[in-house]
Amino acid sequence: MPAVSKKQLAYDILKALYEAFPDSSCTLDNDTPERMVIRGILSAQCTDVRVNLTCNELFGKYPEMDDILKAGQDKISDIIKPCGLHKMKSKSVMAVADNFCNNWGRKVPEDIEELMKLPGIGKKIANLIVGEVYGRPALVVDTHCKRVMKRMGITVSDDPLKVEEDCCKVFPEESWIKLGHMAVDLGRNYCTARNPKCDICPLNKVCRRCLG
Ligand code: SF4
Fold first, then answer.
1. Of 12, 50, 135, 190, which has the fewest beta carbons less than 10 angstroms from its beta carbon?
2. Residue 3's pLDDT is what?
């Protein structure tokens, strides 16, 4: 597909997404930047609902990063067990608390590369943090976004980094944060991994999978 028509496709998709999902937003609770980093880490292979519930308990007991540091990895690991991968995730949580208190000057970095130095933080979570916390243009490519962008014809790749690159070439940067949330809503409600509901999907007039 030539570049111009892909831009047109992106424009049509964006318009349809805004119409279908005007209220799309991040479903992770978002209070302080440092807590958001921890929620992002816990969200790997876990639902946002579970992460929010678990964090209510975690931050209820240990509200500040200093409290988490003092508590130590074992206690944190016990609390975050319901989110899965708790050994790896608790190590990452401790690294956030340690960096926040001792390295970052008590401010979460705005820099994606700096965030990605932490264990447990890849591009997806780093983008989530800079987007949700600092409002900087960043697209979160999760499993839904990856799937729907491929089906709709924006990318041919299954690699999240390449999908992000392909999307960012054709969607305007002011749309990136919300685009990620709308893609999740589309994937959850219509463009499911199995048996996508193309007949009732609000994107079926523009989606390449439907138009052929
Ligand atoms: S029309 Fe079908 S393939 Fe295209 S976005 Fe909708 S559900 Fe997915």
1. 135
2. 47
